[in-house]
């Protein structure tokens, strides 16, 4: 099948269906501010976490919007289109990650609800008694999230390209609208819109599965054509099966991606919005079902090969939208485009809120305005969320898309360095705060040094050097003088360096430090649930003693000097 260059005149039906769905979603985004309307939305608990009151269904849609993003639905099948088996690494990493999430995140939910934490950096600050370490975790979280937000836009940009829309103004307009309703409604907006997003995605997956199955040859023909295509290329790293030299990279990338996923601030923000531990655990047990949809979408890379799809202007991110446009009826292609677009808006909104909360709580309030009111805090977070979104738009408009993809890979290496403080910190406070700082520094230095050594390769045989440095995340073992084509994911090595430095320095520093245990959490904080009298609303922690409606809250007697979100220890 020969697919002509996209023309807006030939995509009128697709555009108007996309515009209609986008309009409905925009109305829902603004209306979400009145959904379960609180007494005041001008607190981070309400604006940034939806009042911590989402039940089973809303939490399911919110977490699926967090994990399964537009970039996943566009980039993963694109990687399968180019390399075959190597593009399937998200399948094992999503199998690995949910048991990890089930075990770890319920503890995170409990301790954050007891103390009123909004960000993982606040937990780190209280657990290890170091606001500097907390601020470092916040900076790493913001740094890793920024390219992730930019990558959501790649999905929408690919859709606009296939519909024949010009330049960057449609992308800018889409994210102006996103910024406005996020500013107005906070986390309630992506939570409500995620319901529409999931309905569109499931519709698209079913339509794709049926259309491929009904074609001549069905899925068997698709695999045979894909196998012949990979066999005819001069590349050695593509095919329906992994080459022996690619297996180490595949395994470490899957494992590293699983570790990074639950450390990203937007994932933890969705977790904290759940009403109780039961809601969280039920959804973490159910979400692996959603991976089945991702499996079908991965196979669309092979379907695009079968249909003879060629990317627009060499941009492989357009492969899946082009296949939708060529294979679906016009109205159905419009709905598929809307699924990609809305699938980008939901995670981008959550990510911007998470990054804004990190800045507000762990930088602005910690260092600039310790006595900021809840209303001022919320206003700062809203402005920060706008800044993050428009910064991400500039990344897409001013930089090469492939470079933005590389930034996301670097972002994974960055966020993995918070694992000792955040994830391991949920189980022990043995690690010394300065050892954690040194470990993060060593891990980042090792990771950046390795990323610098990786060239970006392309061309027909996959060996032509396009860029000398920061060209990917798989570090060749040949750099160690080994005679092999195998490589390893940089994030795993960098995390290993981090853990080693932290473990070696902690006994030494704990022996020299006379400060003693600075942990402001208690063992029972990690198992508290809804209804436990130790769980308090943020307004109580900031204003003391009452909830948002002025009612007294039954409290157990806390230890003197209880940690507050303002970064102070308020004696009782």
From TrEMBL:
Coiled coil: none annotated. Belongs to the sodium:solute symporter (SSF) (TC 2.A.21) family. The chain crosses the membrane at residues 15-33, 54-74, 80-105, 133-156, 168-187, 199-219, 250-274, 286-309, 333-359, 380-401, 407-427, 434-454, 488-512. InterPro entries: Na/Glc_symporter_sf (IPR038377), Na/solute_symporter (IPR001734), Sodium:Solute_Symporter (IPR050277). This is SSS family solute:Na+ symporter. It comes from the Bacteria. Residues 516-540 have a biased composition (Basic and acidic residues). The keyword Ribonucleoprotein does not apply. Residues 516-572 are annotated as: Disordered. Pfam families: SSF (PF00474). The keyword Membrane applies. The lineage of its organism: Bacteria, Bacillati, Actinomycetota, Actinomycetes, Micromonosporales. It is found in: Membrane. Its main location: membrane. NCBIfam families: monocarbox_MctP. It is a multi-pass membrane protein. Keywords: Membrane, Transmembrane, Transmembrane helix, Transport.
